[in-house]
Amino acid sequence: MGYRSKVAIAIHKDVQGEFLAFLNTEKLMAEIFSGYLQLEKDFQDKGHWLFQQDSIKWYDGYPDNYPEVDLFERFFSQMDEANETIQKYRFIRIGESNDDVEERGQWYDSDLWVKRTIIVGW
Fold it and tell me: What domains appear along the chain, each with residue ranges and CATH number?
């Protein structure tokens, strides 16, 4: 089983070309676009992309075992290097532990946020 996370990645249509350039192998492209993450291709009705998964093993630092995660992490690092691109993506990962939340990117108009709630009963 392993540790699972919820993941959401919003990619602005202006940087989709940069993202596709990272998909340098047909194998990775096929895996990412065929169910590794659920993809909404017209996010916000503006042609942006939204990748999501509710229960995924998102382990960074293990490129041989998790090449898809490594690809996204390298893409995020490149986007973080410039103001114009850091503002064109948003990544949120919520782990199983209450305090395990990771956020990257500054595309706040993507409307991706963490919302903590208390649920009483089932």
Answer: 5-110 (3.30.70)
- Taking a C-beta distance cutoff of 8 angstroms, is the pair 21, 36 a contact? no
Q: Mean of the pLDDT values across residues 28-50? A: 85
With tokens 């919820």, the residue in question is: 6
Q: Which residues contact 22 (CB under 8 A, 6 or more apart)?
A: 71, 74, 75, 78
Q: Would you place residue 26 in the very low, low, confident or very high pLDDT band (cuts 50, 70, 90)?
A: low
Q: What is the pTM of this model?
A: 0.87
- Provide long-range contacts, Cβ within 8 A and 24+ apart, for 95-102: 95/3, 95/4, 95/5, 96/3, 96/4, 96/5, 100/5
Going along the chain, which residue ranges are E strands? 5-11, 38-43, 48-56, 89-95, 101-104
105: nearest Cα among 84, 83, 86, 77:
86
